[in-house]
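Board work, copied verbatim: Very low-density lipoprotein receptor-like
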Amino acid sequence: MFFRVCVLSLLVFVVVSAEKKQRQALCLSNDFKCTNGMCIDATWKCDAEEDCSDGADEAGCPTDCSGPNMFKCANTKCIPAQYKCDNDDDCGDKTDEANCPAG
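↓ predict structure ↓
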């Protein structure tokens, strides 16, 4: 009985692992493939947040806030421009919430 449980457990592990590898290998056209094989939304590349567990989505990205999708806080921190005026102090100095339209 113990042997059967071990074999069954091993079989389940192999099937799940193979499924996971297959999912990792098949990224959509609007995805970014991380070095470790995981797929993330391509818009998350160079957004100043590590979305790939291996950091591949932030490797080689500009660090001076020069990209059109970046906002430079008064304290020199860079955040994704989409975080500006979202009612959350992402900069840590509230400059991303200054001069926002009322509403």
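The mean pLDDT is 80.
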